[in-house]
Amino acid sequence: MNDRASTQKSWRFKQSSPLPGFGLSLGYTLFYLTIIVLLPLAAIVLRSLHNGPARFLRAISTPRVAAACWLTLESSLLASVVTAIFGSLVAWVLARYNFPGRRLIDALIDLPFALPTAVAGISLTALYSETGWIGRHLEPRGIHIVFTQWGIVLAMSFVGLPFVVRSVQPVLEEIDSAMEEAAISLGASDWQVFTRILAPVCLPALITGTALAFARAAGEYGSVIFIAGNMPMKTEIAALLVVTKLEEYDYVGASAIAVAMLALSFVVMLTLNLLQWRLQRRKGERV
Amino acid sequence: MHLVRLRSKSERAPSLKTTATRLALVFAALIFVAAFLVLPLVTVFAQAFAQGWRVYADAVCREDVIAALKLTALVAAFAVPLNVIFGLAASWAIARFDFVGKKLLNSLIDIPLAVSPVVAGIMYVEVFGLRGWLGAWLSAHNLHIIFAVPGIVLATVFVTFPFVARELIPFMQAQGCDEEEAAVVLGASAPSIFWRITLPNIKWPLLYGTILAASRSIGEFGAVSVVSGHIRGLTVTTPLEVEMLYNEYNFTAAFAVASLLTLAAVVTLIVKKAIELATGIHGERETGERAR
Lengths: 287, 292
Hints:
heterodimer, A: 287 residues, mainly alpha, MetI-like fold, 2 domains, 15 helices, 79% helix, B: 292 residues, globular
């Protein structure tokens, strides 16, 4: 970034503006971003590169690590599906209907953002254990949530829900109802209105929200570790294995898993950015 | 259920208009929210008070709990202002000027949202830990960052990094810079532009972002857990105290401390909603709700 700043005069690094403070604000932003985010990020990536691809692959392909990564991936995908379905339902109801307590529910949707993950973790565990309010009805029927993969999926769905609702809800609120009215007056059924008009308009927002929920779920730690039981090979997630390796002073193993997790989240974010960029371009063409 | 008078939120939304469908959907959503969000919330308090007020009071007045609460307040007192200053600088640079690489910078600010908290913790261990980049130098000068308070502050700063900037940038971009440019033309100094024009204009989104950042700093668990070292009375924040009490099978005490954090979360939600309703940031602006 600095080399760009030094050449700004020659090729117009910055468009002219009468406002003061550009150098100070951009300089501080870059400085702070570098110290807090970029340098530590570089540190962990370089550490993995320094160790070499052979050691990286060996660290990442042990049965225990592979099992943890697979479990995390599978559970996050399942959780994304759950949040996509229920998140859409809640978003639809909040965006379209008025009913007593709508505002309360609207405010509650952000609870998983606001509630510390450790608190969510112990609370969900208490709720679904065999003495808990929900668990006591499930356990006698042979449905075990706590200390199984279902518990992991449940906790991941809990933290992911607001991402889907908050992505889809504003789109539903802004849909031009003229299209729906036209469709209905032309004899379309509710189902046709849903599949032909609402679904295509909401799909990008739904994909964005679900991908964010997936990324969050894949990296989630606090809310999962209490309900998961953390049995190696069975219910041990990748994030927990990172911590375990670190506590065993296995820095190579810990940073290898961490880099793999970083790579996954960057792929998700990059895909989302590309998707949004394509959508914006298509919108631009239409106008 | 007959009390629930269902009507379409705005009269112009015609689809799925049969009352039965509506009733079923609202009912399903209510059941889901009750089971999925309300029950975990209530469980915290039910468990915390399971053995009565006395046990609850004893649990939250323990020495190590008080120390944890103090540390949490201290960490938030450092992390939140740091990110407020960054948010102001970043939003001024990005929303008020056009420069090469602006989009890239804008995306880089979001990185902490995509990184797992545990990975964030490891990153700081790789830089400041005993075997990290600066480890040898730091230990030679007897400076402790990892397994000490500075590391906890750094990890908290990382996870709350974009919160203020994310609120300010779109708001200031939408607002435009006419007022500030007029002030410059009329000869106002930079500080007086900031204090008299920019700050009053952005006070609500600034407060909103600050509250989100504060809430997350109080509750952060994963990143802090990696860099803390879990030394009771010294490096254990309130969420870590909850974990330690829980792992010691002291469930009532764990939930008692958790109830304090839950209370903070509920207050956050209420204040957040109040700001949304009062100012129209995030939410019901363009729906029929306020217009009618």
